[in-house]
Amino acid sequence: MSSKRLRLPSSRSDLASLNAGDACLLSGPLYTLRDAGHIRLLSELDAAGSDRLPYGLSGQAIFYAGPTPAAAGRPFGAIGPTTASRMDFAAPRLYRAGVVATVGKGTRSVEVRRACMETGSVYFVAVGGAAAYLAKCVVSETVEAYDDLGTEALRRIEVEDFPVFVGIDARGNDVYDFAL
Fold first, then answer.
1. 1 pLDDT exceeds 70?
2. Quick one: which of 50, 52, 106, 156 has the most CB atoms within 10 Å?
3. Where do the H-state alpha helices sit in the chain?
4. Which of 86, 39, 31 has its CA nearest to residue 61?
């Protein structure tokens, strides 16, 4: 099976051709953010009275990950996906605000699936248990916000040939829906 190569950031029109189950290799910027970071980001949006995304997140992809410290001459020793359903409370709002894709592991809620369909966003699945391998795909990283959250800080990472599968495509097809 060959993988589709995608350059990040991708537009929603570029993502529209993807199908649930497609294997992809991502290259370009990804932003890492987990539970505590999502809570803080939503609080900032609430305080601003707007859904205008800060930190350059509009049009970007968020990777649900908490990386380990640098090792072996790489930015991280390991970086693996976190269970995506833990961020279901925030994903629909962030898709509507301009995030075009998320990356995690596992199933998503009906609300996330609906938000993908409404906005043309995509949920990518990264393989759990492969964090040391995935770290080899990370070229660089910088902390953008929430440094006090440690591994849950908002980080901009550059990836090269980062392997994922399309979990939910822009039409709402879900790889976990075994009736496909």
1. no
2. 156
3. 12-15, 35-48, 91-97, 110-119, 131-135
4. 31
Cα–Cα nearest to 177, from 123, 128, 126: 123
The label of the residue with tokens 């305080």 reads 47
**Which residue type does 135 have?**
A
Preceding omega of 9 cis (within 30 degrees of 0) = yes
pLDDT in tens, 75-133: 888 888 999 999 999 999 999 999 999 999 999 999 999 999 999 999 999 998 888 89
Q: Is 178 exposed, middle or buried (0-12, 13-18, 19+ CB in 10 A)?
A: exposed
Q: Is the pTM of this model over 0.85?
A: yes
Cα atoms found within 13 Å of the Cα of residue 97, Cβ hemisphere only? 23
Please tell me whether residue 125 adopts helix, strand or coil conformation.
Answer: strand
| Residue 143, token pair as written in the block | 């902390």
49: left (phi over 0), alpha (psi -120 to 50) or beta: left
pLDDT at position 179, please?
A: 52
